[in-house]
């Protein structure tokens, strides 16, 4: 045997009667003292926990329910000897750990889910027989999962990307999934192209990067060779792709669906989710910094708002139209790269979705939830949108792979909340199994013994749409216009928003190494808007300008602006649901701080205090104020507006801190409203805020000024500052 070293002597197992090896482990804790005889069983089938009589600390058991005496040390032969194979507890523990992961979603891997309900505002019985829309005031349980598309499960929240907005409605006639996005159109028209599109946007296969970023050659190569994506590109290069909060974004069902009433009449429908607190995005430089400061920014925001009772809410809107409209509309209503302007078909608000409960367990619910586009209910039906038809195959397939078998509907998050009776049986992990003799149909066992029966009356029936034609691989002529709506989107934006789109495309193409790809993208932009194309080309120093891309259909310039497509033209004019970050130091004016806190709370906003030390500061009246964040942990990028309420000594101290200067400089550069106490003036100057200030930099002389500052903050950002900070 090798000579013992001091180290091995130190790691030698201690006698069993003393501590069991884990320094934090208390050998006198009741779990190690308890004997099995003392325990009582708390829960029923499947959820047994052994409890010490009279206490409330369950005894740790194996998955077989065997109480565990020592969870710190493997079973070994001799104090320093080999492990024993019979150590079933260790083998079970490590085996389970080794199998903890399931495949992450290929797209939409990073997601965040919450429970809530949908409330029906009015009966829509004239339009649909969907049970959820029959009774005014009815509440239907719902689960929503938001996601980014390209990044892996652990990627950062503020990637420039489309956001998934998937809603599962547990209706009384089965689960209805509206698996949508926060953008109303999509990149491609045919599902055959989906794997290629997704491969191109995800990390490149040889180098394994970039993660969660479309700014690379493969993506733009694919896009520039697929002009049908140009409308979607306008959206993903707009601020829609960098939402401030998941609470502040719209959701869209994208495809045209059908609603069918009791008489069998079909009405076309497009689904919209409208955020109650308005739409809001961050600016790009802010997004980059948020990803560093808090990669979980969006999740934390949902978590915080639900925990604090400020429940995120959306209204469901329907764009309803008939065959006549479909025939007359400029584009094919089956083409998922097109939208119907809200000015043409107004959105009718029919209910609200409220998220009021976080999951108990992220994996069990958010990771295992299985949305499927084919989950529809009587009264709803598909159209022949080719993308939708392709999705109806893909989702069931992917869930079977991801969740390991056909019984993923038995997992509580996926199971219907209404009664359900199938004749399905067996398979991996079958949890819901038929009782009795009957597992087939038809059968001659009468009554209840005969099992469930089909019902032509209430059962799902497909809309009997006629379908004829030659069997071919073809893209319809009616899908051929790739630029007109891209242009319509672009011209509907405010100049600020147009600048952001231009800058985003320039940024992304600057990361594309292949000159020919940059040029090819610009050649498409020339079919959308000449100024856009020229500004991007100048931003890239692309010379000479490429030739305009050949277009299957010339761009229509007669489509009017659609103001509904702009975020800024539809701003909420309220600071509700937003966050103020207040930088404080010792000597802070307690009265002023209280006034600011009250004014913002009254406006439905959250106030967070940032200080040199998280422990807090001593205010000018001697009171102790606890901080929420230390300065470098709470940079201004995570707030919507800031207040600098420092004392003179505090300002002097912080002037030498780059994090404090960044706090102010970033808030200014990101066009945020800034309030300050007089003593903060030198600090503002040191951070580069011009002495003249502007309308967004507000001196708080006294407590009474706080209310005016809140009112100002309702504009969310001072966009007119943009030219002075050249920040997009
Ligand atoms: Fe998806 N999509 N998708 N998609 N999609 C998936 O399903 C697919 C498309 C969307 O939070 C996958 O569970 C195809 C459009 C959301 O769990 C997969 C096509 C829209 C989510 C899949 C599309 C979406 C997904 C991956 C083109 C907006 C996340 C893992 C024909 C209307 C749902 C999974 C969640 C997820 C396939 C296009 C939205 C592979 C084949 C268009 C929100 O089945």
Number of strands: 21
Secondary-structure content class:
alpha+beta
Low-confidence stretches: 1-53
Radius of gyration: 30 Å
Q: Give the overall silhouette.
A: globular
Report the sheet with the most strands, covering strand number, pairing sense and barrel closure. Answer: 10 strands, antiparallel
**Percentage of helical residues?**
25-40%
Structural description of this entry:
- The protein is an alpha+beta fold and 728 residues long.
- 26% of the residues lie in helices and 16% in strands.
- It has 21 helices and 21 strands.
- Strands 4, 5, 6, 7, 8, 9, 10, 11, 12 and 13 form a ten-stranded antiparallel sheet that branches. A six-stranded parallel sheet has the order 18-15-14-19-20-21, with helices on both faces. A three-stranded antiparallel sheet has the order 1-2-3.
- α5 crosses α14.
- It is globular and about 90 Å long.
- It starts with 5 loop residues before the first helix and ends with a helix.
- The structure holds CIS-heme D hydroxychlorin gamma-spirolactone 17R, 18S.
């Amino acid at each position: 045997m090798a000579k013992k070293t001091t180290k091995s002597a130190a790691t030698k197992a201690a006698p069993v009667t003393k501590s069991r090896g884990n320094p934090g482990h208390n050998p006198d804790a009741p779990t190690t003292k308890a004997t099995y005889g003392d325990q009582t069983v708390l829960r029923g089938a499947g959820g047994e926990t052994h409890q010490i009589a009279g206490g409330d600390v369950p005894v740790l058991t194996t998955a077989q329910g065997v109480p565990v005496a020592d969870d710190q040390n493997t079973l070994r032969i001799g104090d320093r000897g080999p492990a024993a194979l019979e150590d079933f507890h260790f083998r079970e523990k490590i085996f389970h750990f080794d199998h903890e992961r399931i495949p992450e979603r290929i797209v939409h891997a990073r997601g965040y889910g919450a429970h809530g309900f949908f409330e029906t505002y009015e009966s829509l019985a004239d339009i649909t027989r969907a049970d959820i829309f029959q009774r005014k005031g009815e509440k239907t349980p719902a689960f929503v999962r938001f996601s980014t598309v390209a990044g892996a499960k652990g990627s950062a929240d503020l990637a420039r990307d489309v956001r998934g907005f998937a809603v599962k409605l547990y209706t009384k006639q089965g689960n209805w999934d509206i698996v949508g996005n926060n953008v109303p159109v999509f990149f491609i028209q045919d599902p055959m192209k989906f794997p290629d599109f997704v491969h191109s946007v995800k990390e490149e296969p040889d180098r394994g990067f970039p993660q969660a970023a479309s700014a690379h050659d493969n993506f733009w190569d694919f896009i520039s060779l697929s002009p049908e994506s140009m409308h979607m590109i306008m959206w993903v290069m707009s601020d829609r792709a960098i939402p401030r909060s998941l609470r502040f974004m719209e959701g869209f069902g994208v495809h045209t669906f059908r609603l069918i009433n009791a008489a069998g009449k079909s009405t076309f429908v497009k689904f919209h989710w409208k955020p109650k607190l308005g739409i809001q995005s961050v600016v790009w430089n802010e997004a980059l910094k948020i990803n560093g400061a808090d990669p979980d920014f969006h999740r934390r925001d949902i978590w915080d708002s639900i925990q604090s009772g400020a429940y995120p809410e959306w209204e469901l809107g329907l764009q309803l139209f008939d065959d006549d409209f479909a025939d007359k509309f400029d584009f094919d209503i089956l083409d998922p790269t097109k939208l119907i302007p809200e000015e043409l078909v107004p959105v009718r608000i029919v209910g609200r979705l409220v998220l009021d409960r976080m999951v108990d367990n992220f994996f069990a619910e958010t990771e295992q939830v299985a949305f499927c586009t084919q989950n529809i209910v009587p009264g709803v039906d598909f159209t022949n949108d080719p993308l939708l038809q392709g999705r109806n195959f893909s989702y069931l397939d992917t869930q079977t792979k991801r969740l390991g078998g056909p019984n993923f509907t038995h997992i509580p998050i996926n199971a219907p909340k209404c009664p359900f009776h199938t004749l399905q049986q067996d398979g991996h992990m079958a949890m819901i199994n038929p009782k009795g003799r009957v597992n087939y149909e038809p059968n001659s066992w009468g009554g209840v013994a005969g099992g469930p029966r089909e019902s032509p009356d209430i059962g799902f029936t497909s809309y009997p749409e006629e379908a004829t034609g030659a069997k071919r691989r073809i893209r319809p002529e009616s899908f051929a216009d790739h630029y007109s709506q891209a242009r319509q989107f672009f011209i509907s934006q405010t100049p600020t928003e147009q600048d952001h789109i231009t800058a985003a495309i320039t940024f992304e193409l600057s990361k594309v190494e292949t000159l020919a790809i940059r040029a090819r993208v610009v050649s498409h932009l020339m079919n959308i808007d000449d100024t856009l194309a020229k500004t991007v080309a100048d931003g890239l120093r692309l010379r000479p300008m490429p030739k305009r891309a050949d277009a299957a259909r010339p761009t229509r310039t007669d489509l009017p602006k659609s103001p509904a497509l702009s975020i800024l033209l539809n701003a909420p004019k309220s600071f509700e649901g937003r966050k103020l970050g207040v930088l404080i130091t010792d000597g802070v004016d307690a009265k002023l701080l209280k006034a600011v806190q009250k004014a913002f709370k009254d406006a439905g906003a959250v106030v967070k205090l940032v200080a040199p030390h998280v422990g807090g500061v001593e205010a000018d009246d001697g009171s102790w104020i606890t901080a929420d964040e230390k300065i470098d942990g709470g940079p201004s990028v995570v707030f919507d507006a800031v207040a600098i309420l420092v004392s003179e000594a505090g300002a002097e101290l912080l002037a030498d801190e780059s994090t404090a200067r960044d706090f102010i400089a970033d808030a200014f550069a990101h066009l945020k409203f800034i309030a300050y106490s007089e003593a903060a003036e030198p600090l503002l100057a040191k951070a580069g805020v011009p002495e003249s200030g502007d309308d967004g930099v507000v001196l708080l002389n006294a407590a009474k000024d706080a209310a005016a500052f809140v009112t100002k903050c309702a504009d969310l950002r001072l966009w007119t500052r943009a030219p002075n900070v050249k920040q997009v």
